[in-house]
Amino acid sequence: MSKFLENQNWRYATKKFDSSKKVTAADLDFLKEAVRLSASSYGLQLYKVIVIESDEIKAKLLSAAFGQTQITDASHLFIFAAQTNVGATEVQSYIKNISETRGIPAEALNGFSDLMNGAIKGMSDEAQTVWTAKQTYLALGNLLNAAAELNIDTTPMEGFNAAQFNEILGLDKLNLNATVIAPVGYRHTEDDTQHYTKVRKSHEDLFITI
Ligand SMILES: Cc1cc2nc3c(=O)[nH]c(=O)nc-3n(C[C@H](O)[C@H](O)[C@H](O)COP(=O)(O)O)c2cc1C
């Protein structure tokens, strides 16, 4: 079996982490790089990722995550937060990045810039919120896969109160909205979930080949 599929079978949404085990700085860099390299719509990366290692802050977030103890027991907590103030400034800064990274004059990118600005302007606030949130889930997927490659455990989590997270972490002031989170660390030997057989739809049920 390929290593990738082996990893997919190895990983599971961890319910109980071993709080004595910490992810090393080198492994954390690998995970962050995997998140950084994630694909995003147009390449705009309209989100920030907050990495919490402070036990004090994790404890503050526990009740806002309905007491799910992965928050406090995991080594680190990744919080994906979509930008709420998307507009011409974000497009401009991305165009500057492309121009500098690839050595292309910014004017040569005017068409691309107009395309992005037009698409963003054409969205309602609600559509924009959904669109930016979607991008964070791609980054979340990369985090889960990269972590599994290093035998690091994760739990993708939507079970938290975003408004409370935003307030506790001051995300509102940064025009950010927490969309999805992932504690990262090492499974506890007492977490029975690790022994459960994976439940997935069959190929026949999942795929439609036309
Ligand atoms: C978007 C999303 C949100 C989830 N939220 C939670 C959560 O709040 N708490 C939790 O324990 N598991 C959560 N899960 C884990 C799922 O229940 C789990 O991924 C699913 O049952 C498949 O099992 P597996 O990941 O162990 O293979 C979430 C998963 C996803 C993808």
Describe this structure in words.
There is one protein chain. The protein has 210 residues and is α+β, with helices and mostly antiparallel strands. It is 46% helix and 12% strand. Helix 2 crosses helix 7 and helix 5 packs antiparallel against helix 6. The radius of gyration is 19 Å and the shape is globular. Bound molecules: flavin mononucleotide. The site of flavin mononucleotide has 11 residues, from loops.
Radius of gyration: 19 Å
Q: What does the overall shape look like?
A: globular
Describe the strand arrangement of the main beta sheet, using strand numbers. 1-2-4-3
**What's the helix-strand series?**
HHEHHEHHHEHEH
Main pleated sheet: 4 strands, antiparallel
Write a brief caption for the model.
It is built from 9 helices and 4 strands. The chain is an alpha+beta fold.
List descriptors.
binds flavin mononucleotide, 46% helix, four-stranded antiparallel sheet, single chain, 210 residues, alpha+beta
Sequence-ordered SSE layout with sheet pairings:
Elements: H1 3-10, H2 25-36, E1 47-52, H3 55-62, H4 70-73, E2 76-83, H5 88-102, H6 110-121, H7 125-149, E3 153-154, H8 162-169, E4 176-185, H9 203-206
Antiparallel strand pairs: 1-2, 2-4, 3-4
Helix pairs in contact: 2-7, 5-6
The structure holds flavin mononucleotide (FMN).
